[in-house]
Amino acid sequence: MNPLMAPEAGASTRRTALSVNLNKVALLRNTRALTIPSVTRAATIALEAGAAGITVHPRPDERHIRAADVHDLAALLKDWPRAEYNIEGNPFHNLMDFVRAVRPQQCTFVPDAVGQSTSDHGWMLEVDGPRLKPLIDEARDLGVRVALFMDPIPAEMPRATELGADRIELYTESYARAWNTKADTFVLAGFVDGARAAQAAGLGLNAGHDLNRDNLTDFLATVPGVLEVSIGHALIADAIEFGLAATVKAYLDCIDRAEIAAR
């Protein structure tokens, strides 16, 4: 059996992996006809600081990550065999071309429109599932783990399993907006329910969107068994103030504090 396709038994005992999303590094670079800041250099710094992987979301308009970046990072990551490469995007747009060419460790299917500024909802699998199924099968046949970007709706999780997904990525913007407000406990409880439903359906659990140094520890200490968080906007914003290596270490400290709090 391909190890990428192996069951994720015992996943709840693993340290949550930090995957650094480099879209905003590319966005800054693209404002000038220059090669700085370098996406591959940023990836190297993040990995040297302890990040477990790199995430990119190449959109069809190439407003941040470009096709060349996807391939350059794939080449770089060959020197980091223990790091994971996660390419996310809409499989009905340009994502599958990159999956076929690069064969990353993971691809995350996201239901975003071509022109929208950022992802803002998860898949509704009763509607989207029939179209997703053959693409999930194709990616897995290529040895690529498939995660589906999902809202924390328990009833949707068995459908993800039926489609052949390996993981789901919980879309966490609603948690980030509610954090430290009166709605915090209620919203977080919904994510716990979604996470438990996913795990009961045999799915691995990722999370991402608007997670930051303030809210990450609380989320991971409460939501059980998160294998990976993908963080870009807040992490790169923090890096402007603290430097990229120090920022990656600060996020890893948030993950470690969550592990201690959850014991």
Structure description:
By secondary structure, this protein is α/β, with parallel strands linked by helices. It has a single domain (14-262), classed as Alpha-Beta Barrel (TIM Barrel), CATH 3.20.20.70. The chain is 45% helix and 15% strand. The protein is built from eleven helices and eight strands. The chain has an eight-stranded parallel barrel with strand order 1-2-3-4-5-6-7-8, surrounded by eight helices. Helix 5 links the parallel strand 4 (106-109) and strand 5. Helix 2 runs parallel beside helix 3, helix 9 runs parallel beside helix 11 (244-262) and helix 10 packs across helix 11. The chain is globular and about 45 Å long. Residues 1-12 have low confidence and may be disordered.
Describe the secondary structure blueprint for this structure.
Blueprint: E1 17-21, H1 23-29, H2 39-48, E2 53-56, H3 67-77, E3 84-89, H4 95-102, E4 106-109, H5 125-141, E5 145-150, H6 157-163, E6 167-171, H7 173-178, H8 184-200, E7 204-208, H9 216-222, E8 228-231, H10 233-242, H11 244-262
Parallel strand pairs: 1-2, 1-8, 2-3, 3-4, 4-5, 5-6, 6-7, 7-8
Helix pairs in contact: 2-3, 9-11, 10-11
